[in-house]
Amino acid sequence: MAARSLWAVRRRLQRLLASSTWSAGRGWLHPFSTATQRTAGEDCSSEDPPDELGPSLAERALRLKAVKLEKEVQDLTLRYQRAVADCENIRRRTQRCVEDAKIFGIQSFCKDLVEVADILEKTTECISEEAEAGDQKLTLEKVFRGLSLLEAKLKSVFAKHGLEKMAPIGDKYDPHEHELICHVPADIGVQPGTVALVRQDGYKLHGRTIRLAQVEVAVESQKRL
């Protein structure tokens, strides 16, 4: 059995040798021959680009990308510098506006007060002239008219600018609006704990208390302090 297998293998080898010899005689190359491998190697080497071109192309692409990125960085840096400069200019203008508002915020109020000062000045001049003439009754009448005009003008100026005088008599005592001076006995018809007398007027500006009213608060007789 082993001899038969060995004979079959030898027979196949003889056939392969014979076929390769016949192909060489006709000018054909065996696929696994040395010549065929050399020719294939030469063809591959002639078609593929040399290895030196790969790194140079990659390096060129990286350089172009680096130049592009550098331009973008320069552009962004320039934009950032302009934005910082604009913000600084806006900050300075805003600060200047705030300072002007602090200084000239009461400009309109002062302009109206100047008219009150004019009335007071004219009244003073009239008083001095009449005092020299010796007519005291006429002088007092002019003083009264001047002061009445002055008071009316002041009330008009205050109302125009939202300045309001409080009228707390009869109101319940409020520490946010009233400054307690003392307690007084509650008279008939006066509720304890309410404002009985105003020592000094208080004022509000657009509803906000800017000066407390000095008041006396009514209390029951046994709670008088």
TrEMBL record:
Function: Essential component of the PAM complex, a complex required for the translocation of transit peptide-containing proteins from the inner membrane into the mitochondrial matrix in an ATP-dependent manner. Seems to control the nucleotide-dependent binding of mitochondrial HSP70 to substrate proteins. Stimulates ATPase activity of mt-HSP70. May also serve to modulate the interconversion of oligomeric (inactive) and monomeric (active) forms of mt-HSP70.
Swiss-Prot/TrEMBL keywords: Acetylation, Chaperone, Coiled coil, Mitochondrion, Transit peptide
Pfam family of the protein (one): GrpE
Keyword Chaperone: yes
Domain of life assignment: Eukaryota
Identification of the protein by name: GrpE protein homolog
Recorded coiled-coil stretches: 59-93
Major subcellular site: mitochondrion
Localization, UniProt: Mitochondrion matrix
Subunit structure: Probable component of the PAM complex at least composed of a mitochondrial HSP70 protein, GRPEL1 or GRPEL2, TIMM44, TIMM16/PAM16 and TIMM14/DNAJC19.
Keyword Acetylation annotated: yes
Annotated Gene Ontology cellular component terms: PAM complex, Tim23 associated import motor
BP GO annotations: protein folding; protein import into mitochondrial matrix
InterPro entries in alphabetical order: GrpE, GrpE_CC, GrpE_head
MF-aspect GO terms: adenyl-nucleotide exchange factor activity; protein homodimerization activity; protein-folding chaperone binding; unfolded protein binding
CDD domains linked to this entry: GrpE
Gene giving rise to this polypeptide: GRPEL2
Family as reported in the entry's similarity comment: Belongs to the GrpE family.
